[in-house]
Every structure is written in structure tokens, then in C-alpha cells.
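ERR on first pass: missing label on line 2. Operator R.T. fixed the label and resubmitted. Corrected input:
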Amino acid sequence: MASFFESLRLGLKPRGQRDEVVARKPTSHGVRGGESPPVEIAPNDPLIPYFLSAPGAVEIDKIHLDSPALTQLRAAGVRLVVPLVSQGELVGLLNLGPRLSEQDYSTYDRGLLNDLATQAAPALRVAQLVREQQMEIRARERLEQELRVARLIQQTLLPKELPDIAGWEFAAYYQAARAVGGDFYDFLAFPDGRLGIVIGDVTDKGVPAALVMATTRSILRAAAQENTSPGAVLERANNLLCPDIPAKMFVTCFYGLLDPTSGRLVFANAGHDLPYRRHDDGAEELQARGMPLGLMPGMAYEENALILAAGDSILFHSDGLVEAHSPTGEMFGFPRLAAFVASHEGGKMLIDALLDQLGEFTGPGWEQEDDVTFVTLRRASLNSAADAAPGASRSASLAAPIALAEPAPDTPEAPNAPTAPETAAPVADEDWSTLATFSLPSEPGNERDAMDQVAEVLRPLGLTPKQLEHLKTAVAEATMNAMEHGNGYTAELPVYIEVLRSDRAVMVRIRDQGGNRPIPTPQTPDLEAKLAERQTPRGWGLFLIQNLVDEMRVTSDETHHTIELIMRLEGGPRDGEAS
Amino acid sequence: MTARHLEADVRCGPIATVVDLHGDISSASDETLGAAYARAEACGPRPIALNFHDVDYINSSGIALIVGLLVRARKSNRALLAFGLSDHYVEIFRITRLTDFMSIFPDEELALASAKSA
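pass 2 clean. output:
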């Protein structure tokens, strides 16, 4: 009966795919051999209705049908077929070759086979259902595993920490959709203090999107190290991505480069949803044109810039928010987002408020359609110029010298006065009297006016010509820093300059409105590295100041950043001049 | 004194190419300085001498631009010289160590003599 059991090795495709019956055929030696290739029976093969109507075992030689399956069965040496029918459905066949005794199958044999078929058909059907269910479970597990991998890739590559920059607040939120989209964001810290901010979205979902996201992130990081221009970074990334990105996939991406000291944000866009800048007068889009990455090589990317004033914020977002739908099918949309940004404070509070708004809009039981990603940055608020310096106009123009309405920081009227560091040299602790005060709008070139006005005040005081030249250059550099890094070259934000003297020294105090800035540590520039283009050629200002004055003190409070430049009058030779 | 925009003239000579600079050297001078240097390069593979006689203001951004010119000069193995600097800016060049990589001369005659003997 070996042939009998081997003939049980027939198979059917899973129920969901069952458009044809598959029966394993015997080997060339009847059914004696090992596993045999299946005989496929097409759903329209006349053999199927024939078997369904057969009362029991059927001799192949007595069937006269134009049936490809019948031909295959005959070729495989099948002599007798017992249809396995369960609930009116052909679930399998028992295929038997010739008896080993070479005699025909007897009536007893047929009866036995028919009884077996009656028992085997429902059991086989149950087995098939169990198998189909197991395959579905395995398919679901595979899908879940893929999604877990996709989530893992994304979450591993998203920043673990937010940038920690004095005077700035950063917040980020990422919520993957169940199918895991391709959203990503990144922060790139550069040695010169600037910060790259990336937000992007890969088309498609799951593992393919996650892999393209990972690749894009690496390419962007490499391109950002090679280029300082956001437009050039996107151009480079696009050219690198194009040859390898799978067909019909692309990446939208917005890249901004922030100078935290000046608040200047240079940005370029590769087809990503435009971020919003929120300021006192409302909200506006950060517009820059450019094709998504990976579509076509050789693309150029428009580059724009803005300066974030104190209190300004930016919201970067992905399309998961604006394309979210309400229960009635309405889309969240850009106008709603723009209005929301305009009417809410920026930073983390904006993200919290947006999530609340999204929850209300989509209602309970919302199945998130796409990843939702937010990144916000916000320049710390400071008291307005009018608050900080009562009586000083925000549109102050150059007026020399005018009385500085703002109280001097070391007078009792100034509660937020910066205090001198304990290590201050004795000369700085003398009694100082103010010789002149004036203010300058923060506009490029005005450092020359600061330099000349300070020189006019100091000229009669007995500084040597060399000292005066040194102090002039130091004043120019410090004023430039104040206008650029403190006030972001915002003309309405003045730089305050106070000239003071004591018995033995003169002091120039320069103050901007970019408070809460880190106190910089002057470092000697590495000229060899600059010449080898490993470092930016810039970065000389503070080094020059330190080398040109006898003493330099920097303080920063919530609202102001102040630098004091001190030059001795007759206090002996300066360091380095003794010889 | 108000800012003076930089202007530059290029004189191609047999010994060196002289770039006469007039005005301030600051971040606003980037384009003018870069274009002048490119014109000087086009004169031939001779040393380039920067004439600072009519420059009375160079800020840290201007120093960065001069570093940029040094980068270009070093890439093409070209000597970059300077003359006509005030005592104050000679000291600035010394403090910044630019003098380690470019020779400084009081006037054009000495600069060209040096270029000729090089």
C-alpha cells in the first residue's frame, strides 16, 4: 500500500489563492518514488466538474475529456483518482498508480478508498484551513516585523537630543503612522557654532521608505560637511541620491542653516512643505523653490535667508498634519495651519497646541494616515528695545553723542546689571566716570562710526597713537559683533556704546540686545587649517580684540550682551610691550 | 569717517602683477577683491602684489578675505605679496600671522625687487 499513502501527498494552494487545484503526480514508476511535482488543474478545466459529480473513485482511462490536467495525470502514470470533496468543494485528489500486483483495483479496493475519501476530505479541508490561517498569521507577522524594522530604523536615526544653545529653544515631535512613513529630521552642529536643521519626507512607507530615509540622512550629513550653502547641500544630495533611489521614490527636504549668534537662517527647499515663521505681525512661509531630491540630477535650489529677531519662531512640519482628515473627510490644510501658527506662541507650546488641535479636528478613533513630524525653533524673547532702554527709539538713527537713556549697568538703577567676573584685573575695578554715550543702528558699516566717535572722545586723554589705533580696531570689531551676533543686523535694534575713564585707564562698553548668549572664549585661530580649507577663513574678531586691548570683559544677562574694552593710560607697559 | 567701498585696479607687469586697492576691506569687499584677484591671475603666472597704500580700514572679515586669497595663491603655487600697509595693519598682519605666509614690504619698489629676485 506504499503507493496508496504516497498518493496522499497532494496539495492545494491556500484558499485565498485557490483558483486552481494542485495535485502531486506519481513518479515515472507509478507512485512509488519520492515527492512528485504537482499537477496543476486550472479552474476552468472540465475535469473539476467531472470529479465533483463523480460518485467515488474514477479510473483515468475511462475519462474522455479535453483536459490538460487529464493529460498530465495520464503522463504521470496515474490509474485511479479518488476526488476529495468537502461541502461541495473539490479540496484534493487521491492519485493512485497501478497496483504493485499489476492487477486492477477491485471493488473492495474502491470501496475502501471511497470510505477513506469520505473521512479524509473534511479532515483535509480542516488541515487546509489551519494551514491557510497559519500562512496568514505568518504574513501578518512578517508585515509587523517589517514595520518594526522600519520604525527601528527611523527612531534610531532621529536625533536623541535637541540642540542646547543659549538663547534658543528647540522642540521636536515625531509620531509614526501605523504603516510608518518616511519622515525624518536632523540637527547638524558645525564647529563654528552654526546649526543645520533638516526636515524631510520620503515617499512610500515601511522598510523601503526607512532605508531611503537612512540613505538620504547620511548623504545630507556628508554634503553639509562639504558645503556651507544650503542650496549647494541640496544640489549635492540630489545628485548623489538620483542614481540609487528606487524608481518612483523621491524625498522632499527643507534644509536651513542657523547662525545662533546673529539669528540669521539661510535656507533652501527641495519640494518640502514650507515652514512657517511666526513673529509679532503674524506668520509667513519660508519660501524657496527646488525639486524634490532623487527625481532628476542637475537640479539647482533657490536659497533665501532671514533674520530671526528675539521672540520669533519657526515651525517645520511634514504633510502628515496638513493632509490629516476629519471624520467628514475635510482636510486640515495649510490655511488652517498658517492661522494657527500666527495666533499661538512658538516653541514646544506650539507643538502641544497643534497636537490638541489635530486631535479635535480628526476626532476620536482617528487612524493616523501618515507620519506627523514637527520641529520648532524659537529665539528667546527679550524685553523690547523700548522696555530695555526707556526713551530710546526702536528706530534710533545715528546720533553722536547722545545721552544714553538706559541706565548704566553698574548703577543702582539697573537691576539686571551684569557683574564683573571675580577674576577681573584691578584696573577694571576702579571708579569709572562716563565721558560719552551714544547708540548706533545695527547696520553694516556702522562700526566705522563707532570707531571714529570713540576716537574723538579719547584723543585728548593721552593714549599713544598706537594704543588709539588698537582700541579703534577693537571697538570696530566689538561693535560689528554686537550688530551681527547680538542684534542680527536689525537696524531697529541699536548698539549702545559708553566711553568711560578712570585715573589710570579708559574703557569702552559696548552692549547689544542679544542676551543669554554664551560667553565666548577667545581662541587663537588655526591659520594653517584655514589655509588648508579645513576651517572657515573667518573667526578673527574676538582674537583681534583680545590682542589689541589690555583687558576684555564679557558679560551676558537675560536681555543684554556686554563687552568692555579697557586700555591703560599710564599704568606701565602692556603685556608683550615690556621689551 | 564713513565706509568706503573697495575699488581695485590691476596692473600686469613683467615681474609681478600689482593690485591697487582703494577703500575699505570688509565683508562687502568680497566680490571686488575676488574679481580683482582673478584679473591678476589672468595676467600670467607671476607673483601678485597687493597695494594697501590707499586702504585705511581692514576689519576681521577683510582679514578672512585675505586668507581666502592666500588659499587661492597657495593652490596655484603663486607668491602673494603686500605693500603699503600702515604700521597698524602691519601689526594686525603680524598678530594674525598672515606675515608667515605672505611677505610684507613698505612700498612697491621693494616688493617688486623682492619678486624679481625670487
